[in-house]
Structure formats: C-alpha cells, structure tokens
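Extended Data, panel c. Modelled sequence:
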Amino acid sequence: MSGRPGRKLGPITSSVGSAHRAWLEPVRERYLGSGLTLSELSVRIMFAKSKLSELLRGIGLYPRWEAVQGLARELGLPSWPLYRLWRQAAFEAHKSSAWVERCSENSTLSTAPTAPPLAHLAYRELVGDDYTGYAQVFLSDDQSDYAVSDTFDILWLCWNDALASPDLRRFAWEALRATVLAKTPHLDGRPQFGTAAFDTVILQSLPAADHMDQIAESMELFNAMSRLPDHQLDVMVLRRLRGHCEEQTSALLGVSRATVRSDERHAVRFLESILCPPETEQDDEQSPLYPPPETEGNTE
C-alpha cells in the first residue's frame, strides 16, 4: 500500500497449497487495506515481525491458530469461517488432528460456530444448489460439497468487499470458480473434469443402451472444453452440461445475456473446429454441441 513505511510485503510463496491460500489471500487483502504496518500489527498481536511477514507470505511451518486468531481479531475478520478454512488447510499440510486440537484448545470462543450476515445467508440459499451443480461437473460429490462450503466461507471473510464490488454475483462466482478449479486435477494447465462430468444433462436424457457411445463422445467434448477460456468454459458448463437457460446463466455469472450469447457462440465455433471438422458430416441433433432447449428452469 502506498505511503506505508517499511519494506513492502512480498507475494505468497508458490508452494502454498490451495486450502492454505483460500484463507491467506483474504487475510492479506484485509491487512493491505488496513493501513497498519507489520511493526504495528506485530506489537498488537505480540508476534515477531519477521514471523508475521512469513505467516502473511505462507513461508515456513504452517501457522498455529493462536497467531491466525490474533490477526483475525486485529483486522476485524470473523473467526468461525477463518477457523474452518485454517483447519482444512492444516490437514492439507499433513498436520494431525491432535496438533489441530492442541492449537485451538485455549481458543474456544474463536472456534465456536457463529451465524453469517443475513444477506450472506440469503445469497447462499439463492445460489447454493446451482453452485453445487457447477462444482459437480469438475469434482466428486464430496469434493464439490467442500468446494461450495469453502467458497461461502471465503465470501464471508470478504463479505463487505463483495457488497462493495460492481456486481456481487460476479464477485461470488469468481470465488467459486477459483475454489473449484484449485481442487480440480490439471494436465498441462488444463482442468481434467471428464470423470466427474459424466452425470450431465446429456447422459441423463439418453436411454441406457446409448450411454457407452455418448461417454466416448462426451470425453472428446470435455477434453476440447478444457481448452476454452474460463468465461467461455463457465457458459458452456452451465448451458450445455447443467441445462440452464440464458437468463439463469446470466444471473449466476453476473454478466449480461448478450455476453452469455457471445461467449457461447465463440465457444461453440472453437469446439466445432475440433469435434466437427468441415469434411465430417454429422447430424446436428446427434452432435454434443446441439443446443439445449431454452426453458425457464433447470432441466433436472
């Protein structure tokens, strides 16, 4: 932050895992926006400045909850979603359950469940099922539940920023996408989601006898879709795999219907160039890119 004395805080180290980064990034953003220096914060939470810098960069050993709790208190962050994310990241860092419990045994107040803001709770009720449907295209059912839960914990940590953003829906969707893709296996930088995505609108609409042929076609489609830019991939997942209409897709992504149509058109052209080259004759209704019916609700 300009005008802050002392050395500028360095970036998060590349070795930080996805679960650790999920809570560290909102904490860093709150610190950078607070106007406090590391020296001031160090005195307030009684934590060495050098160790505090390491904590905010994800360097060294995974931090104990006492230090993270002190940061949450001074920066005005809600403890409960932060603790949930911290705990999950501790297990990702191969910490034992005993270590986690020892870290928090003297912090019962900060680890007690609390209710989120009413607006946050209402928004989760509004989009939670659709977020889960999106996550299930990339992840197993259990993993998708964790991803959606993590997303709303992250949103809780930065809820004021979300409300102050140009579009809450877009802010929230970007948090969901980042969380889901961080948990999705990648190959050469491309998300590999074919296995999880088999349970789609396409497969559910076919007789059982046709599933094997459709699986082969779908694998080709999923591999090609993994090469799409993020915004086009999201539109194709919501429109073609989840069966949402333009209006639903627009509302979830926080973009105009014209943007949805444009992204879908460009994505289809790209996919057709790979899956349906000009010399290949194919009945449109048998193509995996054949548009879904435009309905007011989800086809499920």
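Residues 118-138 form the longest helix (21 residues). This feature is highlighted in the accompanying rendering.
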